[in-house]
Design brief:
The structure holds 2 protein chains of 2 kinds. By secondary structure, chain A is of the alpha/beta class. In chain A, about 30% of the residues lie in helices and about 20% in strands. Chain A is globular. The chains are: A alpha/beta, B mainly alpha.
C-alpha cells in the first residue's frame, strides 16, 4: 500500500519568489505529522499543493499513490480543516446539514447521499459531541462548537488523510489540550493519517509522531523529541520556554523536559529507533 | 396576461437565486451584469446610426443586451474564479465601461439621426406592457430551469456557497457550479431587464433572499420565504400599475420588497429584544 503522502523534489514558486524548494517528505499511513515553521515559511502553500489547489513547479506529490487533483476528485481520500473558515453569518444551515456538505464530492452530482454515509454522519455527530446540537443553526454556535462541526464535515466522507491548518490558533492552553485529546481519540478510532500544521510547537509536538520544520526547504523531519533547540530559535526567533523547549529539547507534555520526558505516544518506540525517513535536502540541520 | 406570467416567473427565478446571491455576497455582480446590457444595446444603436436597417429591427437592441450580459457574466465568472483580479474591481470595470459605451453610443445615434433610439429608456427602467407570448414562455422556461438546476445541484451549490475552498478540497466541481450559478443569474437579468429595467433588476436578485434570511433559519424555509416575498411584491406591483396606469410596475415591485425587508429586520430586532 502506498504511503499516505509522498513528495519528491518539490519546488514551488509564487510571483517569481521561490516558496518551496527541493522538498522530499514521506508520511506513512496511520501516523501524525506536525508541520511547523514561521509565518510565510510555506506551510499553507504545501497544504494547498496537497489539496491540488496549486500545481507544483517541479517534482511530484502523491496522496495514497494518486496525484492530488485525482485524490481530491474521489472525495473520500482527503479531509480538510482550513485555517480561517468563513464565518457562517446568516447561512441557513443546521449543524447536521453542514456536516453532510462534506459528502457532496464523494456522492457526486445528481445523486443522493448513500444511506450508510448518512448513518456515518450521525455517528460522527455523536463522536464530536454535537448530537444534541445537530438541528441547531450553525450561525448560533460558539467557536469551539463550530470547529467540532467542521472537523465532522472534514471526516464525514471517511478520508484516509486529515489536513488540519492551524486548528489551535486562538484557542487557550486548556482548550488546546482538550482539542488534542479529542483529535487523538478520533485519529485512533478512524485510523487516520493526520497532518497538523501550526506555528505552535508545543501543540504540534503533543500529538505528532514526527515533526517537519518548513521554511522554504525542509529543515528537519524526525520525532519531536530530537528537534534541536537552536533550530527552533533560528526559525521562530522567540523564547524557547514559550515554545515548549527545555534543556535544549522539545517538551512534549506539561511540566516535563528533556528528550525522554515526553508522554509516550503511539509510534514513539518505532520512530525513535529509526532514522528520519527523509532528511532535509536544502540546508540540512 | 403575458406580462403577469413573465413577472411571476421572473419573481420566482430571482427569489431562488437571491438566496445564493446574498450568501455568496454577489449583489454587486448583478449590478455589473445588468448594466453591461446597456453597452450591448448601445452597440446596436451605434451600428444603426451608420447602417439604418439595424434601426428597423426592433429586437436588435435586445439581442445586444443578451449578448453583452452573457459575455460580461462569462468574463466576471472567469476573473472571480481565477482570482487574478479582485472580483469587486472586475465588476466595477465592466459596469463602468459598459455604461460609458452605452451613453456614448446613444449620443452618436442622437447626433446622426437627431432623436433618441426607440425604447432606450426601456433598458434602464423596463416596460411591462409589451410582453409577447414567446417572451412569457422564455421567462417560464428560465424559471423552470433555475428550479431544476437548484434541485439537481442543491448539495453542490450549498457546499460551494458555504465555503468554496473546502467544497473544492472535498471533491465538489466548484468551477462548474460557479459558472452555472453565474449563467443562471445572467439569464435571469436578461429577462428581468424587460420587466424592471437594468437599474432595478439587481434589487430583485438581492432583496427577497436578504429578507427571508432574516426570518427563516433553514434552507427550504429561506427559499420558500424568498419566493413568497418576491411574489407578494410582484403582485403588488402589477395590481398597482393596473389601477393607476401612470405608476410603473418595476419601481413598485422593488419598493414593496424594500418595505418587506424593513419589516423583517424590525421583526428580528423586536424578537431578539423580547427574548
Amino acid at each position: 500500500m502506498p504511503p499516505a503522502i509522498e513528495i519528491n523534489q518539490l519546488d514551488f514558486t509564487y510571483a517569481s519568489q521561490p516558496t518551496l524548494r527541493q522538498i522530499d517528505l514521506t508520511v506513512e499511513r496511520g501516523t501524525t505529522l506536525g508541520l511547523v515553521g514561521p509565518n510565510g515559511g510555506g506551510k499553507t502553500t504545501l497544504i494547498r499543493l496537497l489539496l491540488g489547489l496549486l500545481r507544483p513547479g517541479a517534482g511530484s506529490i502523491r496522496i495514497g499513490g494518486l496525484p492530488p487533483p485525482e485524490a481530491v476528485r474521489r472525495g473520500n481520500i482527503i479531509g480538510y480543516l482550513p485555517q480561517n473558515p468563513p464565518a457562517p453569518g446568516l447561512f441557513p444551515l443546521s449543524v447536521r446539514e453542514v456536516v453532510r456538505l462534506g459528502l457532496a464530492g464523494k456522492t457526486g452530482m445528481f445523486r443522493a447521499h448513500a444511506r450508510e454515509d448518512l448513518a456515518f454522519a450521525e455517528s460522527l455527530l455523536e463522536r464530536v459531541g454535537m448530537v444534541e446540537l445537530a438541528d441547531t443553526p450553525v450561525a448560533s454556535l460558539s467557536g469551539g462548537q463550530l470547529q467540532r462541526a467542521y472537523i465532522a464535515r472534514a471526516l464525514v466522507a471517511r478520508p484516509m488523510l486529515l489536513l488540519l491548518d492551524e486548528p489551535t490558533t486562538g484557542i487557550d492552553r486548556a482548550g488546546q489540550r482538550q482539542f488534542i485529546d479529542f483529535l487523538q481519540k478520533l485519529k485512533e478510532e478512524l485510523r487516520l493519517t493526520v497532518v497538523f500544521v501550526s506555528h505552535d510547537l508545543r501543540a504540534v509536538s503533543a500529538i505528532s509522531d514526527r515533526i517537519a520544520c518548513l521554511n522554504l526547504t525542509l529543515h528537519y523531519h524526525d520525532v519531536p523529541d530530537h528537534l534541536p533547540a537552536d533550530l527552533v530559535f533560528r526559525m521562530f526567533a522567540c523564547d524557547l520556554e514559550a515554545m515548549g523547549i527545555r534543556d535544549g529539547h522539545v517538551c512534549t507534555h506539561e511540566g516535563g523536559g528533556g528528550p525522554d520526558a515526553g508522554t509516550p505516544r503511539r509510534g514513539d518506540a518505532r520512530t525513535r529507533s529509526e532514522p528520519a525517513i527523509l532528511a532535509a535536502k536544502g540546508t540540512p540541520e | 396576461m403575458n406580462a403577469i406570467m413573465t413577472a411571476l416567473a421572473l419573481a420566482i427565478a430571482c427569489a431562488v437565486l437571491s438566496v445564493f446571491v446574498v450568501s455568496r455576497r454577489w449583489a454587486f455582480i448583478g449590478e455589473g451584469i445588468s448594466h453591461s446590457g446597456f453597452g450591448g444595446a448601445g452597440t446596436v444603436w451605434a451600428i444603426a446610426s451608420v447602417w439604418p436597417p439595424a434601426d428597423r429591427a426592433a429586437w436588435a437592441p435586445y439581442l445586444g443586451v443578451v449578448l453583452f450580459s452573457l459575455a460580461t457574466a462569462c468574463a466576471i465568472a472567469y476573473f472571480t474564479r481565477t482570482g487574478k483580479i479582485n472580483s469587486d474591481a472586475v465588476i466595477g470595470i465592466f459596469l463602468a465601461a459598459a455604461l460609458a459605451w452605452g451613453i456614448l453610443a446613444q449620443q452618436i445615434y442622437w447626433r446622426q439621426l437627431h432623436r433618441n433610439p426607440v425604447g432606450w429608456d426601456v433598458f434602464l427602467f423596463g416596460h411591462m406592457a409589451e410582453m409577447s407570448g414567446s417572451f412569457a414562455a422564455a421567462a417560464a422556461a428560465l424559471c423552470a430551469g433555475v428550479i431544476a438546476a437548484v434541485a439537481l445541484l442543491g448539495k453542490e451549490i450549498l457546499a460551494y456557497c458555504f465555503d468554496p475552498m473546502v467544497a473544492e478540497a472535498s471533491g465538489v466541481r466548484v468551477g462548474f457550479v460557479h459558472y452555472v450559478l453565474l449563467m443562471m443569474i445572467a439569464l435571469t437579468i436578461v429577462i428581468g431587464v424587460r420587466v424592471a429595467g437594468s437599474v432595478l433588476v439587481p434589487a430583485m436578485l438581492v432583496l427577497p433572499g436578504a429578507t427571508a434570511l432574516l426570518v427563516a433559519k433553514h434552507v427550504r424555509a429561506v427559499v420558500i420565504g424568498s419566493i413568497a416575498v418576491a411574489l407578494l411584491a410582484t403582485m403588488t406591483g402589477i395590481a398597482t400599475s393596473h389601477y393607476w396606469s401612470f405608476v410603473p410596475t418595476g419601481p413598485v415591485i422593488v419598493l414593496t420588497m424594500f418595505f418587506q425587508f424593513i419589516i423583517a429586520y424590525a421583526w428580528g430586532k423586536l424578537s431578539s429584544a423580547i427574548q
